[in-house]
Specification:
Elements (H helix, E strand, L loop, with lengths): L2 H13 L12 E6 L2 E7 L8 H7 L9 E6 L11 H7 L4 E6 L9 H8 L3 E3 L4 H5 L3 H9 L3 E9 L17 H13 L2 E5 H7 L14 E5 L10 H4 L6 E5 L6 H9 L3 E4 L9 H10 L4 E4 L3 H10 L2 E9 L26 E9 L2 E8 L3
Parallel strand pairs: 3-4, 4-5, 6-11, 6-12, 7-8, 7-11, 8-9, 9-10
Antiparallel strand pairs: 1-2, 1-3, 12-14, 13-14
The chain binds ligand AOF and zinc ion (ZN).
Protein backbone atom coordinates (compact mmCIF):
# COMPACT_ATOMS: atom_id res chain seq x y z
CA UNK A 1 0.00 0.00 0.00
CA UNK A 2 1.11 3.57 -0.64
CA UNK A 3 1.26 6.53 1.77
CA UNK A 4 -1.90 7.83 0.11
CA UNK A 5 -3.74 4.56 0.69
CA UNK A 6 -2.78 4.52 4.37
CA UNK A 7 -4.08 8.07 4.81
CA UNK A 8 -7.28 7.21 2.91
CA UNK A 9 -7.71 4.32 5.34
CA UNK A 10 -7.28 6.76 8.25
CA UNK A 11 -9.91 9.04 6.67
CA UNK A 12 -12.41 6.23 6.32
CA UNK A 13 -11.81 5.21 9.94
CA UNK A 14 -12.35 8.82 11.04
CA UNK A 15 -15.76 8.88 9.32
CA UNK A 16 -16.99 6.11 11.61
CA UNK A 17 -17.13 8.70 14.38
CA UNK A 18 -19.55 10.88 12.42
CA UNK A 19 -22.13 12.50 14.66
CA UNK A 20 -20.65 11.01 17.86
CA UNK A 21 -17.50 13.11 18.31
CA UNK A 22 -19.07 16.61 18.25
CA UNK A 23 -17.99 19.16 19.25
CA UNK A 24 -14.68 17.36 18.80
CA UNK A 25 -13.36 16.59 15.32
CA UNK A 26 -13.47 13.27 13.50
CA UNK A 27 -9.95 11.85 13.46
CA UNK A 28 -8.50 8.54 12.23
CA UNK A 29 -5.02 7.01 12.67
CA UNK A 30 -3.15 4.09 11.13
CA UNK A 31 0.20 2.66 12.33
CA UNK A 32 2.37 1.02 9.68
CA UNK A 33 5.63 -0.92 9.91
CA UNK A 34 7.45 -2.79 7.16
CA UNK A 35 4.52 -2.30 4.79
CA UNK A 36 1.96 -3.73 7.25
CA UNK A 37 -0.81 -2.02 9.20
CA UNK A 38 -0.04 -3.01 12.80
CA UNK A 39 -2.59 -0.76 14.50
CA UNK A 40 -5.47 1.55 13.71
CA UNK A 41 -8.14 3.54 15.48
CA UNK A 42 -10.41 6.56 15.41
CA UNK A 43 -11.99 9.03 17.79
CA UNK A 44 -15.21 7.19 18.56
CA UNK A 45 -17.06 9.51 20.87
CA UNK A 46 -16.75 12.91 22.53
CA UNK A 47 -14.85 12.63 25.80
CA UNK A 48 -13.35 9.25 24.93
CA UNK A 49 -9.87 8.31 23.69
CA UNK A 50 -8.43 10.12 20.68
CA UNK A 51 -7.71 8.33 17.40
CA UNK A 52 -3.99 7.90 18.12
CA UNK A 53 -4.54 6.31 21.53
CA UNK A 54 -7.17 3.95 20.12
CA UNK A 55 -4.66 2.98 17.41
CA UNK A 56 -2.05 2.24 20.09
CA UNK A 57 -4.61 0.23 22.07
CA UNK A 58 -5.12 -2.03 19.04
CA UNK A 59 -1.40 -2.92 18.73
CA UNK A 60 -0.37 -6.54 19.11
CA UNK A 61 3.32 -5.78 18.68
CA UNK A 62 5.73 -2.92 19.36
CA UNK A 63 5.33 0.23 17.27
CA UNK A 64 8.99 1.18 17.69
CA UNK A 65 10.22 2.91 14.54
CA UNK A 66 6.79 2.65 12.85
CA UNK A 67 5.01 5.38 10.86
CA UNK A 68 1.72 6.84 12.04
CA UNK A 69 -0.71 8.30 9.50
CA UNK A 70 -3.14 10.60 11.26
CA UNK A 71 -5.82 12.80 9.68
CA UNK A 72 -5.22 15.70 12.08
CA UNK A 73 -2.25 17.10 14.00
CA UNK A 74 -1.90 15.16 17.28
CA UNK A 75 -2.91 17.12 20.34
CA UNK A 76 -0.38 18.19 22.96
CA UNK A 77 -2.67 19.38 25.75
CA UNK A 78 -4.41 17.81 28.70
CA UNK A 79 -8.11 17.91 27.80
CA UNK A 80 -10.55 15.13 28.61
CA UNK A 81 -7.65 12.85 27.69
CA UNK A 82 -3.85 13.19 28.06
CA UNK A 83 -1.82 14.50 25.07
CA UNK A 84 -1.47 12.21 22.05
CA UNK A 85 2.04 13.55 21.41
CA UNK A 86 3.07 11.93 24.70
CA UNK A 87 1.73 8.52 23.60
CA UNK A 88 3.48 8.84 20.21
CA UNK A 89 6.80 9.59 21.90
CA UNK A 90 6.38 6.79 24.47
CA UNK A 91 5.67 4.25 21.73
CA UNK A 92 8.84 5.38 19.93
CA UNK A 93 7.06 6.10 16.64
CA UNK A 94 9.69 7.09 14.03
CA UNK A 95 7.60 9.18 11.65
CA UNK A 96 4.20 10.91 11.76
CA UNK A 97 2.33 11.80 8.57
CA UNK A 98 -0.35 14.44 9.25
CA UNK A 99 -3.31 15.63 7.15
CA UNK A 100 -5.10 18.63 8.72
CA UNK A 101 -3.68 21.18 11.09
CA UNK A 102 -5.48 21.48 14.44
CA UNK A 103 -6.71 25.08 14.75
CA UNK A 104 -7.45 24.59 18.45
CA UNK A 105 -5.36 27.38 20.05
CA UNK A 106 -4.15 24.82 22.61
CA UNK A 107 -2.56 22.78 19.80
CA UNK A 108 -2.17 24.77 16.56
CA UNK A 109 1.35 23.79 15.49
CA UNK A 110 2.58 22.97 19.00
CA UNK A 111 1.75 19.30 18.46
CA UNK A 112 4.05 19.17 15.45
CA UNK A 113 6.75 21.10 17.28
CA UNK A 114 6.77 18.69 20.24
CA UNK A 115 7.05 15.68 17.94
CA UNK A 116 9.96 17.26 16.04
CA UNK A 117 11.73 18.20 19.25
CA UNK A 118 11.50 14.54 20.29
CA UNK A 119 13.40 13.63 17.12
CA UNK A 120 10.39 12.22 15.26
CA UNK A 121 10.23 13.00 11.55
CA UNK A 122 6.99 14.78 10.64
CA UNK A 123 5.28 15.21 7.28
CA UNK A 124 2.57 17.88 7.29
CA UNK A 125 -0.34 18.72 4.97
CA UNK A 126 -0.46 15.21 3.51
CA UNK A 127 -3.81 14.80 1.62
CA UNK A 128 -4.73 17.93 3.51
CA UNK A 129 -7.75 18.82 1.38
CA UNK A 130 -9.35 15.38 1.83
CA UNK A 131 -8.60 15.42 5.57
CA UNK A 132 -9.95 18.96 5.97
CA UNK A 133 -13.25 17.83 4.41
CA UNK A 134 -13.86 15.70 7.51
CA UNK A 135 -14.18 18.65 9.85
CA UNK A 136 -15.68 21.91 8.52
CA UNK A 137 -17.80 22.05 11.67
CA UNK A 138 -14.89 21.68 14.08
CA UNK A 139 -12.72 24.20 12.19
CA UNK A 140 -15.50 26.78 12.37
CA UNK A 141 -16.62 26.15 15.92
CA UNK A 142 -13.22 25.91 17.62
CA UNK A 143 -12.33 29.35 16.28
CA UNK A 144 -15.66 31.17 16.70
CA UNK A 145 -17.64 29.24 19.35
CA UNK A 146 -20.61 29.77 17.01
CA UNK A 147 -22.47 26.81 15.48
CA UNK A 148 -21.89 25.89 11.84
CA UNK A 149 -25.34 26.27 10.26
CA UNK A 150 -26.31 24.13 7.28
CA UNK A 151 -29.49 25.21 5.50
CA UNK A 152 -31.16 22.17 4.03
CA UNK A 153 -34.23 22.04 1.83
CA UNK A 154 -35.91 19.86 -0.74
CA UNK A 155 -37.46 21.44 -3.81
CA UNK A 156 -38.84 20.52 -7.19
CA UNK A 157 -36.96 21.30 -10.36
CA UNK A 158 -39.12 24.43 -10.66
CA UNK A 159 -37.98 25.60 -7.22
CA UNK A 160 -41.01 24.78 -5.01
CA UNK A 161 -40.84 23.32 -1.51
CA UNK A 162 -44.63 22.83 -1.39
CA UNK A 163 -47.65 22.99 -3.67
CA UNK A 164 -49.96 26.00 -3.74
CA UNK A 165 -52.11 24.31 -1.06
CA UNK A 166 -49.06 23.95 1.18
CA UNK A 167 -48.64 20.18 0.74
CA UNK A 168 -45.03 19.06 0.95
CA UNK A 169 -45.25 15.31 1.55
CA UNK A 170 -43.23 14.40 -0.36
CA UNK A 171 -41.04 16.43 -2.61
CA UNK A 172 -38.10 14.02 -2.73
CA UNK A 173 -37.95 10.22 -2.87
CA UNK A 174 -37.31 7.64 -0.17
CA UNK A 175 -33.51 7.58 -0.49
CA UNK A 176 -33.15 11.36 -0.14
CA UNK A 177 -35.43 11.35 2.90
CA UNK A 178 -33.30 8.62 4.44
CA UNK A 179 -30.19 10.72 3.84
CA UNK A 180 -31.86 13.54 5.80
CA UNK A 181 -32.22 11.14 8.75
CA UNK A 182 -28.43 10.63 8.68
CA UNK A 183 -27.88 14.38 8.44
CA UNK A 184 -29.94 14.87 11.59
CA UNK A 185 -27.55 12.53 13.40
CA UNK A 186 -24.53 14.41 12.02
CA UNK A 187 -25.43 17.85 13.43
CA UNK A 188 -25.91 18.64 17.11
CA UNK A 189 -28.96 20.84 16.60
CA UNK A 190 -31.93 21.04 14.28
CA UNK A 191 -33.75 24.34 13.85
CA UNK A 192 -37.13 25.15 12.31
CA UNK A 193 -39.63 27.99 12.35
CA UNK A 194 -43.03 27.79 14.08
CA UNK A 195 -44.79 27.84 10.67
CA UNK A 196 -43.31 24.43 9.89
CA UNK A 197 -44.28 23.08 13.33
CA UNK A 198 -47.89 24.29 13.02
CA UNK A 199 -48.22 23.03 9.44
CA UNK A 200 -46.53 19.62 9.71
CA UNK A 201 -46.46 18.78 13.45
CA UNK A 202 -43.03 17.16 12.91
CA UNK A 203 -40.95 15.14 15.39
CA UNK A 204 -37.56 16.37 14.15
CA UNK A 205 -35.95 13.20 15.41
CA UNK A 206 -33.84 10.42 13.92
CA UNK A 207 -35.71 7.26 13.08
CA UNK A 208 -32.64 5.19 12.12
CA UNK A 209 -31.14 2.60 14.51
CA UNK A 210 -28.02 3.49 16.54
CA UNK A 211 -28.11 7.19 15.75
CA UNK A 212 -28.54 10.12 18.07
CA UNK A 213 -31.19 12.83 18.11
CA UNK A 214 -30.29 16.50 17.65
CA UNK A 215 -31.36 19.22 20.07
CA UNK A 216 -34.55 20.79 18.66
CA UNK A 217 -34.57 24.55 18.36
CA UNK A 218 -37.91 26.12 17.46
CA UNK A 219 -37.99 29.77 16.42
CA UNK A 220 -41.40 30.86 17.64
CA UNK A 221 -41.37 34.63 18.19
CA UNK A 222 -44.98 34.85 19.43
CA UNK A 223 -44.88 31.56 21.38
CA UNK A 224 -47.60 29.93 19.30
CA UNK A 225 -46.42 26.34 19.78
CA UNK A 226 -49.21 23.95 20.79
CA UNK A 227 -48.88 22.03 24.00
CA UNK A 228 -50.23 18.90 22.31
CA UNK A 229 -47.73 19.07 19.42
CA UNK A 230 -45.43 16.09 18.85
CA UNK A 231 -42.45 18.22 19.78
CA UNK A 232 -43.82 19.30 23.15
CA UNK A 233 -45.13 15.81 23.90
CA UNK A 234 -41.65 14.34 23.42
CA UNK A 235 -39.62 17.13 25.04
CA UNK A 236 -38.60 14.93 27.97
CA UNK A 237 -36.91 12.52 25.53
CA UNK A 238 -35.23 15.02 23.22
CA UNK A 239 -33.87 18.37 24.35
CA UNK A 240 -36.13 21.11 22.98
CA UNK A 241 -35.53 24.85 23.09
CA UNK A 242 -38.36 27.18 22.08
CA UNK A 243 -37.04 30.64 21.27
CA UNK A 244 -39.42 33.59 21.49
CA UNK A 245 -39.34 37.36 21.21
CA UNK A 246 -42.62 38.65 22.71
CA UNK A 247 -43.01 39.03 26.44
CA UNK A 248 -46.66 39.89 26.99
CA UNK A 249 -49.21 37.51 28.61
CA UNK A 250 -47.06 34.45 28.20
CA UNK A 251 -46.05 33.65 31.77
CA UNK A 252 -48.57 30.84 32.24
CA UNK A 253 -47.79 29.27 28.91
CA UNK A 254 -44.08 29.41 29.68
CA UNK A 255 -44.68 27.62 32.97
CA UNK A 256 -46.78 24.94 31.31
CA UNK A 257 -44.12 24.40 28.64
CA UNK A 258 -41.43 24.12 31.30
CA UNK A 259 -43.47 21.53 33.19
CA UNK A 260 -43.65 19.53 29.96
CA UNK A 261 -39.85 19.52 29.66
CA UNK A 262 -39.47 22.34 27.11
CA UNK A 263 -36.70 24.91 27.60
CA UNK A 264 -37.53 28.44 26.56
CA UNK A 265 -35.29 31.33 25.60
CA UNK A 266 -36.25 34.98 25.27
CA UNK A 267 -34.08 36.35 22.48
CA UNK A 268 -35.60 39.46 20.86
CA UNK A 269 -34.07 42.01 18.53
CA UNK A 270 -35.17 45.65 18.53
CA UNK A 271 -38.15 44.81 16.25
CA UNK A 272 -39.43 42.04 18.55
CA UNK A 273 -38.26 39.36 16.18
CA UNK A 274 -35.80 36.66 17.12
CA UNK A 275 -32.20 37.85 17.11
CA UNK A 276 -30.61 34.94 15.27
CA UNK A 277 -27.05 36.14 15.77
CA UNK A 278 -27.53 36.35 19.53
CA UNK A 279 -29.24 32.97 19.45
CA UNK A 280 -26.18 31.44 17.76
CA UNK A 281 -23.91 32.84 20.49
CA UNK A 282 -26.20 31.29 23.13
CA UNK A 283 -26.29 27.90 21.39
CA UNK A 284 -22.52 27.97 20.85
CA UNK A 285 -22.06 28.55 24.57
CA UNK A 286 -24.33 25.56 25.18
CA UNK A 287 -21.75 23.45 23.34
CA UNK A 288 -23.82 23.09 20.16
CA UNK A 289 -21.28 23.16 17.31
CA UNK A 290 -23.60 22.64 14.35
CA UNK A 291 -27.21 23.17 13.32
CA UNK A 292 -29.27 21.74 10.51
CA UNK A 293 -31.70 24.46 9.47
CA UNK A 294 -34.78 22.79 8.02
CA UNK A 295 -36.88 25.84 7.16
CA UNK A 296 -39.37 27.00 6.28
CA UNK A 297 -38.80 29.77 3.81
CA UNK A 298 -39.37 32.64 6.25
CA UNK A 299 -36.81 31.41 8.77
CA UNK A 300 -34.40 30.52 5.95
CA UNK A 301 -34.61 34.06 4.66
CA UNK A 302 -33.97 35.55 8.11
CA UNK A 303 -31.04 33.19 8.63
CA UNK A 304 -29.41 34.08 5.32
CA UNK A 305 -29.98 37.79 5.97
CA UNK A 306 -28.48 37.48 9.47
CA UNK A 307 -25.40 35.86 7.95
CA UNK A 308 -25.56 32.74 10.14
CA UNK A 309 -25.77 30.20 7.29
CA UNK A 310 -22.41 28.67 6.30
CA UNK A 311 -23.50 25.91 3.96
CA UNK A 312 -26.51 25.07 1.79
CA UNK A 313 -27.61 21.54 0.95
CA UNK A 314 -30.37 21.49 -1.64
CA UNK A 315 -32.17 18.35 -2.67
CA UNK A 316 -33.72 18.76 -6.10
CA UNK A 317 -36.49 16.42 -7.21
CA UNK A 318 -37.22 15.75 -10.89
CA UNK A 319 -40.76 17.12 -10.54
CA UNK A 320 -42.62 20.33 -11.38
CA UNK A 321 -45.30 21.76 -9.05
CA UNK A 322 -45.86 25.04 -10.88
CA UNK A 323 -48.07 27.82 -9.52
CA UNK A 324 -47.05 31.32 -8.52
CA UNK A 325 -48.18 30.59 -4.93
CA UNK A 326 -46.20 27.43 -4.33
CA UNK A 327 -43.72 28.04 -1.50
CA UNK A 328 -40.02 28.49 -2.28
CA UNK A 329 -36.98 27.72 -0.08
CA UNK A 330 -36.27 31.36 0.73
CA UNK A 331 -39.20 33.74 1.14
CA UNK A 332 -38.98 37.45 2.04
CA UNK A 333 -38.70 40.05 -0.67
CA UNK A 334 -35.40 39.00 -2.18
CA UNK A 335 -32.79 41.12 -3.91
CA UNK A 336 -33.47 43.57 -6.74
CA UNK A 337 -30.56 42.82 -8.99
CA UNK A 338 -28.77 39.60 -9.91
CA UNK A 339 -25.55 41.32 -8.91
CA UNK A 340 -26.91 41.55 -5.34
CA UNK A 341 -27.25 37.75 -5.03
CA UNK A 342 -25.76 35.87 -2.09
CA UNK A 343 -22.98 34.04 -3.88
CA UNK A 344 -22.06 30.47 -3.01
CA UNK A 345 -19.12 28.30 -3.88
CA UNK A 346 -19.85 24.91 -5.25
CA UNK A 347 -18.66 21.98 -3.13
CA UNK A 348 -20.37 18.82 -4.33
CA UNK A 349 -23.12 17.39 -6.47
CA UNK A 350 -24.42 13.84 -6.20
CA UNK A 351 -27.42 11.75 -7.07
CA UNK A 352 -29.40 10.17 -4.23
CA UNK A 353 -32.05 7.80 -5.55
CA UNK A 354 -34.04 9.77 -8.10
CA UNK A 355 -33.01 13.15 -6.65
CA UNK A 356 -29.93 15.35 -6.87
CA UNK A 357 -28.17 16.89 -3.89
CA UNK A 358 -26.12 20.04 -4.37
CA UNK A 359 -23.85 21.29 -1.58
CA UNK A 360 -22.49 24.84 -1.60
CA UNK A 361 -20.67 27.00 0.93
CA UNK A 362 -21.09 30.68 1.54
CA UNK A 363 -18.03 32.84 1.11
CA UNK A 364 -16.50 33.92 4.42
CA UNK A 365 -17.24 37.56 5.14
C1 LIG B 1 -6.16 14.34 18.47
N1 LIG B 1 -6.80 13.18 18.13
O1 LIG B 1 -8.65 11.99 17.82
C2 LIG B 1 -8.88 14.23 18.40
C3 LIG B 1 -8.21 15.45 18.71
O2 LIG B 1 -11.15 17.19 25.42
P1 LIG B 1 -10.30 16.27 24.63
O3 LIG B 1 -9.16 15.69 25.41
O4 LIG B 1 -11.07 15.20 23.89
O5 LIG B 1 -9.55 17.17 23.51
C4 LIG B 1 -10.31 17.73 22.48
C5 LIG B 1 -9.39 18.49 21.55
O6 LIG B 1 -8.39 17.60 21.04
C6 LIG B 1 -10.11 19.03 20.32
O7 LIG B 1 -10.56 20.34 20.54
C7 LIG B 1 -9.03 18.97 19.26
O8 LIG B 1 -8.15 20.07 19.36
C8 LIG B 1 -8.27 17.72 19.63
N2 LIG B 1 -8.89 16.55 19.01
N3 LIG B 1 -6.86 15.45 18.71
O9 LIG B 1 -4.93 14.35 18.59
C9 LIG B 1 -8.12 13.08 18.10
N4 LIG B 1 -10.24 14.16 18.43
ZN1 LIG C 1 -5.16 13.82 21.01
Amino acid sequence: MTDKEYMLRAISLAKKGEGWTNPNPMVGAVIVRDGRIIGEGYHKKYGELHAERNAFASLKESAKGATMYVTMEPCCHYGKTPPCTQAIIEHKIGKVVIGSKDPNPKVSGKGVQILKEAGISVVEDFLREECDKLNPIFFHYIKTKIPYVVMKYAMTLDGKIATKTGESKWVTGKEAREEVQHMRHRYMGIMVGIGTVLADDPMLNVRVKDKKNPVRIICDSKLRIKEDSQIVKTAFNQRTIVVYAYSQNIQEKLERLHSLGVETLYCPDERNQIDLKKLMIYLGNEGIDSILLEGGGTLNESAVRAGIVKEVQAFIAPKLFGGANGKTPIEGIGVNLPSEAVRLKYVDICQIGEDIKITCKLYEK
